[in-house]
């Protein structure tokens, strides 16, 4: 997955999203990696969501719908959205704690849209 996201920019968070909750939590082994890829339930636990303006949201939905139609035409059921989040103004809350990305400006990279800022 690393070669899909831009390597020139550090991704503070990476998610492999399928829109399912069944077995969709990263393993302890994955969490221990220096650059883990989290899953759907981790995304729900770690973030309040993504705030997108209406144009960006509409473009993303159009792309996802188009991708689904193409996959459906080939009778392919499996779809993953790889989402990378780079936090522009990420600052640690205190020593040893996770960074608070909830109120930060983010740049998002995904397999659906090349780059969206939100």
Please, could you describe this protein's structure?
The structure is a single chain. The chain has helices at residues 28-31, 40-46, 54-73; strands spanning 13-17, 38-39, 81-87, 106-110, 116-117. The protein has 3 helices and 5 strands; from the N terminus they run βαβααβββ. It has a domain at 13-85: Phosphatidylinositol Phosphate Kinase Iibeta, Chain: A, domain 2 (2-Layer Sandwich), CATH 3.30.810. Residues 93-101 and 113-118 have low confidence and may be disordered. The chain is of the alpha+beta class. Strands 2-1-3-4-5 form a 5-stranded mixed beta sheet. The protein is globular.
Outline of the structure:
The chain is α+β, with helices and mostly antiparallel strands and 118 residues long. It has three helices and five strands; from the N terminus they run E-H-E-H-H-E-E-E.
Please state the second-level CATH architecture of the domain at 13-85.
Answer: 2-Layer Sandwich
- Average pLDDT, to the nearest integer? 78
Backbone structural class:
alpha+beta
The number of E-state strands comes to: 5
First-residue to last-residue Cα separation: 23 Å
Helix content: 25-40%
**Arrangement of strands in the largest sheet:** 2-1-3-4-5
CA radius of gyration:
15 Å
Tell me the series of helices and strands, N- to C-terminal: EHEHHEEE
Main pleated sheet: 5 strands, mixed
How would you name the CATH homologous superfamily of the domain at 13-85? 2-Layer Sandwich
CATH topology of the domain at 13-85: Phosphatidylinositol Phosphate Kinase Iibeta, Chain: A, domain 2
The fraction of residues assigned to DSSP E strands is 15-25%
Structure annotation, total helices: 3
Poorly predicted segments: 93-101, 113-118
The top-level CATH class of the domain at 13-85 is: Alpha Beta
Shape, per Cα inertia axes: globular
GO molecular function: 1-phosphatidylinositol-4-phosphate 5-kinase activity; ATP binding
Domain PIPK: 1-118
Pfam family, one: PIP5K
Protein name: (spotted green pufferfish) hypothetical protein
